[in-house]
Amino acid sequence: MDELTSFFEHTYIRGRRRRGRATTHGPAVFLVETWNQHVAGSDGIARSTHSVEGWHHGLQSLFQCHHPTVWTFMSGIQHDIQRQKALFLQATNGVTHPFAKKYCALNDIVARAVGYGRAGVLVYLRSIAYLSHA
Q: Is the full-model pTM beyond 0.85?
């Protein structure tokens, strides 16, 4: 387990310890700004690629196969373009599509989770423990 922990620490949090220096570390392989989704969570925007995967699944179900012919692909793309245009025009005219309740609840949990910096880690952990028992 120590090897796994040190791998994540050196790759994502801080780099490897520099030779001859007990407390100085080099830069991490991936900067925190690259992988940290704290700002995305607090702003309520997508934190993963699930929306793209959902679009891909919708496209596959539109074609009803994994490898469509060129003609099936073209007609499916035209149908998808028409659907996307309709959604865009509805959005520009103020029509909103409500999110499912489970997604609203998940967004609330994420908003509370990223807000622990203001309240303190102990308060945040207590609220998570309370939610898990509720």
A: no
